[in-house]
């Protein structure tokens, strides 16, 4: 079974609108971390936001927020006021505590296209 | 954030050649990683290291090898490149702190003809 599932291969949004990218995860550990990365066409992976499993509040970083629903095992990324530069692949990833080397498991990604 | 560098950024090479992809970081982080990523696909962990003289294989089997002789340096080597090795290779290291965020280098796009 996949540990990280991103069900949206592609998403389209108009500039200045908000968009939600879905991510569900599967783990039996109570302690874990969830990450979102952005990958533009240039190829580098850019860290966006982190949510710990024990964090009481949803993480926010500027225009990025993470809608963390622990019972549903979902960690959706919300981008407010989309910009053309937000067009990229977005990856959700999870770190589990039995991964002593802090290794991450990545989802298949969602391609976001922002139109003018 | 970590300052992490990869060279070359792009490499086109013929079958059978030996290649080394370089990865260096300047933050003194112990944990480093190599991922392989085909275009538009997810990342697969192929190697990782938690410090000098420590290397482990990742989830995806790879014919590449790695070494960790110095903390800041984690090169990946292919003894005999094949077209099936054509991919992007991303190096990462883990920052300090509770989040253990992985920071990535710019990647190397390898094409084997």
Structure notes:
The complex is a heterodimer of chains A (116) and B (113). Chain A contains no helices and twelve strands. With 116 residues, chain A is an all-beta fold. Chain A starts with a strand and ends with a strand. Chain B has no helices and eleven strands. Chain B has strands spanning 4-7, 10-13, 19-25, 32-37, 44-51, 54-57, 65-66, 76-78, 87-94, 102-104, 108-112. In chain B, a hairpin with a 6-residue loop joins β4 and β5 (44-51). Classes of the chains: A mainly beta (116), B mainly beta (113). Chains A and B meet through β5, β6, β10 and β11 of A and β5, β9 and β10 of B.
Helices and strands of chain B: which structural class? Answer: mainly beta
User: How many individual β-strands of chain B?
Assistant: 11
**Number of helical regions of chain B:** 0
- Distance from N terminus to C terminus of chain A (CA atoms, Å) equals 38 Å
**How confident overall, as mean pLDDT of chain B?**
92
| C-alpha Rg of chain A (nearest Å) | 14 Å
Quaternary state of this entry equals heterodimer
Which regions of chain B have little confidence, pLDDT < 50, spanning 5+ residues? none
Overview features:
heterodimer; A: 116 residues; mainly beta; six-stranded mixed β-sheet; four-stranded antiparallel β-sheet; 12 strands; B: 113 residues; seven-stranded mixed β-sheet; globular
């Amino acid at each position: 079974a996949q540990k990280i599932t991103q069900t949206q291969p592609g998403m389209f949004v108009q500039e200045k609108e908000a968009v939600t990218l879905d991510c569900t995860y599967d783990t039996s550990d109570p302690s874990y971390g969830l990450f979102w990365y952005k990958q533009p066409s240039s190829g580098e992976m850019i860290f966006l936001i982190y949510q710990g499993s024990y964090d009481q509040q949803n993480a926010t970083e500027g225009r990025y927020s993470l809608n963390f629903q622990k019972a549903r095992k979902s960690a959706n990324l919300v981008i407010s006021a989309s910009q053309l530069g937000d067009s990229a692949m977005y990856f959700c990833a999870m770190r589990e505590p039995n991964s002593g080397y802090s290794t991450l498991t990545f989802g298949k990604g969602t391609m976001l296209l922002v139109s003018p | 954030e970590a300052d992490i560098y990869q060279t070359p950024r792009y490499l086109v090479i013929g079958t059978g050649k030996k290649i080394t992809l370089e990865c260096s970081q300047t933050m003194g982080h112990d944990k480093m990683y190599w991922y392989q990523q085909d275009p538009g696909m997810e990342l697969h962990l192929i190697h990782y290291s938690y410090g000098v003289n420590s290397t482990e294989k990742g989830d995806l089997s790879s014919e590449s090898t790695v070494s960790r002789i110095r903390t800041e340096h984690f090169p990946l080597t292919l003894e005999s490149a094949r077209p099936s090795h054509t991919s992007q290779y991303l190096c990462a290291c883990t920052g300090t702190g509770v989040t253990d965020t992985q920071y990535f280098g710019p990647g190397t796009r390898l094409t084997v003809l």
